[in-house]
Design goal:
Blueprint (H helix, E strand, L loop, with lengths): L1 H15 L3 H10 L11 H12 L7 H12 L4 H13 L8 H10 L4 H18 L4 H8 L4 H9 L10 H10 L6 H15 L3 H10 L6 H7 L4
Helix pairs in contact: 1-3, 1-4, 4-5, 5-7, 6-7, 7-9, 8-9, 9-11, 10-11, 11-12, 11-13
Length: 224
């Protein structure tokens, strides 16, 4: 089993690299919503490679076990490890893993994990299992803003494979959303698609300027 081997390695490595002074600054940057060990991203990823070296690829069940175990730990770096681990091994996951992804999105939510989960976990799952598109449609209407943000951003890395009708539909439906994180996500998703198809994005923004927030418009047109 992967989890009983990996978790002790992970906690020993991360705890050994903890920097309490840096942890205070990292927590402050995240508005003191999470406790940190104080490990910056580059050394954290290096430690993660050491921790997983020599371990076999997990099964789908083991992948779920590892990420849920990471989410049960209280330091934010463990959530980052779980996110990266899920993204790295998402190919072993079946469509039922989307329920686990939702649990991760809803538990200890903030943009730092949610955005990575959207683009690198949920997005690949939907590509692999097209029947999950209907779930994305439901998520886009969800009252939980992080779930809705995930739906908006799940195509972020699709480029030419983007379902433009769906993307524009989500953006039109959520254009009047009052929350900053949704408005930012709309603009980001549109801006990313504009790298591939600039003219449809220009046309969409022009047609919806009266309903899109200034933030969404500014983000969408930033590089056009």
């Amino acid at each position: 089993m992967t989890t009983p081997t990996l978790l002790p390695r992970l906690t020993a490595a991360f705890e050994g690299a903890a920097d309490p002074e840096r942890a205070v600054a990292m927590a402050a940057y995240m508005r003191d919503q999470f406790a940190f060990l104080g490990i910056m991203s580059t050394p954290r990823r290096a430690l993660s490679r050491e921790v997983t070296r020599g371990l076999p690829k997990p099964s789908g069940a083991e992948l779920e076990s590892v990420v849920r175990a990471c989410w049960a730990l209280d330091k934010r770096e463990y959530h980052y490890f779980g996110t990266d681990y899920a993204a790295r091994h998402i190919a072993v996951a079946g469509p039922d893993f989307l329920a686990t992804a939702r649990f991760l999105v809803e538990t200890h939510p903030w943009w730092d994990t949610v955005d990575a989960l959207a683009a690198h976990v949920v997005g690949p799952l939907v590509t692999a299992y097209p029947e999950l598109v209907a779930t994305m449609d439901a998520w886009a209407r969800d009252d939980n803003l992080w779930v809705a943000r995930t739906a908006v951003l799940h195509q972020l890395r699709y480029k030419g494979r983007t379902d433009a009708t769906r993307l524009f539909g989500y953006c039109a439906d959520l254009a009047g959303h009052p929350d900053f994180f949704i408005r930012k996500a709309l603009g980001w998703a549109l801006r990313e698609y504009a790298h591939t198809e600039p003219e449809p994005v220009r046309a969409f923004v022009a047609a919806h300027r009266d309903t899109l927030s200034p933030l969404s418009v500014r983000e969408a047109l930033k590089h056009l």
